[in-house]
Write a structure and sequence with these properties.
With 275 residues, this protein is α/β, with parallel strands linked by helices. The chain has helices at 36-40, 68-81, 94-105, 125-141, 150-154, 157-162, 166-175, 179-190, 196-201, 219-230, 252-255, 257-274, and strands at 11-15, 17-25, 45-51, 87-92, 110-116, 206-211, 240-245. It has a seven-stranded mixed β-sheet, with helices on both faces. Helix 4 (125-141) runs antiparallel to helix 8. The longest helix has 18 residues, at 257-274. Bound molecules: D-malate (MLT). Residues 27-28, 93-94, 189, 216, 250 line the site of D-malate.
Length: 275
């Protein structure tokens, strides 16, 4: 069921073009800005629209209880109101959870899926409990202190050594988020189900991208999604492509924007051919 109290979300055109857009969904605890460098590297002519998910960046919370499903419905409603009937939906980590919920709830909208440093499985009990603790800490302190240490885990060992300039950038993006938005997102992620079956049913092109040094959603999670997405086609090449980004961690689109943009450009070509 589509949630009723669906707010209009803030959107940002990060790359100009025509036709079927890429809709870019950010990870946690970030906003649309994490896609900017990658969008700049897209092939000419591909339109890229980044969305701030509920409570992140310039998007408000609308009083709806935390859920990935509500985030997906909000993206859908926002895009339809903007005149976008369908799109290639690309999600990073938490944005990937939202992309899979969109494919489940609004399959006609999703013409292709890009799943970047994310996974289709649900949380373990331990991970869920940790999220609820972080949400409670954000509420109690009215700060985002509980997530300020994240940049060290988000980037890979290569970036820690050679791309030190990314640390203050990630830090400033995290500090700009609202405590209420951080708490909402953690509770939303904690309650999401396993959506591997959504990928099994999805019958349009899928690109799975993962940083070789991603310690949060590692290669095994990416391979699990590729296997699920390829299932209906009997592993036919091109329907579920896997791109491994060397020297990058969980923020592959920030750490190596060209590599991720190239994979998304190929996905767009495949979707247009398939459409
Ligand atoms: C993200 O990058 O969106 C988060 O690390 C996802 C998560 O906490 O599961």
């Amino acid at each position: 069921m589509t949630s009723q109290a669906t707010a209009r979300l803030a959107t940002f055109t990060l790359h100009d073009g025509g036709g079927l857009p890429l809709v870019l969904l950010h990870g946690f605890p970030l906003d649309h800005r994490m896609w900017a460098a990658c969008a700049e590297c897209l092939p000419p002519g591909i339109r890229a629209i980044a969305v701030d998910l509920p409570g992140a960046g310039h998007s408000d919370l609308d009083g709806y209880p935390p859920s990935i499903e509500h985030a997906a419905d909000s993206v859908y409603r926002t895009m339809v109101e903007a005149g976008e009937g369908n799109a290639v939906v690309v999600g990073h980590s938490m944005g990937g959870y939202v992309a899979l919920a969109l494919a489940e709830r609004h399959p006609g909208f999703v013409a292709g899926l890009g799943l970047v440093d994310t996974k289709s499985t649900a949380d373990t009990e331990e991970a869920r409990a940790k999220r609820l603790r972080i949400a409670a800490a954000a509420d109690a302190s009215q700060t985002v202190d509980a997530v300020l240490s994240m940049p060290a885990a988000l980037v890979g060992a290569t970036s820690t050594e050679r791309r030190r300039h990314l640390f203050p950038v990630l830090d400033s993006w995290i500090r700009a988020q609202s405590p209420a938005g951080v708490a909402w997102a953690q509770r939303a992620m904690a309650s999401r189900p396993d959506r591997t079956a959504v990928l099994k049913r999805f019958d349009a092109p899928v690109a799975v991208v993962v940083g070789a040094e991603d310690a949060i959603t590692p290669l095994a999670d990416a391979e699990h999604m590729v296997r699920a997405a390829a299932a209906p086609f009997g592993l036919s090449a091109g329907d579920a492509a896997l791109t491994l980004v060397p020297g990058a961690g969980h923020m592959s689109m920030v750490e190596d924007p060209q590599a991720v943009a190239a994979a998304l450009g190929l996905l767009h070509i495949q979707v247009v051919a398939h459409h």
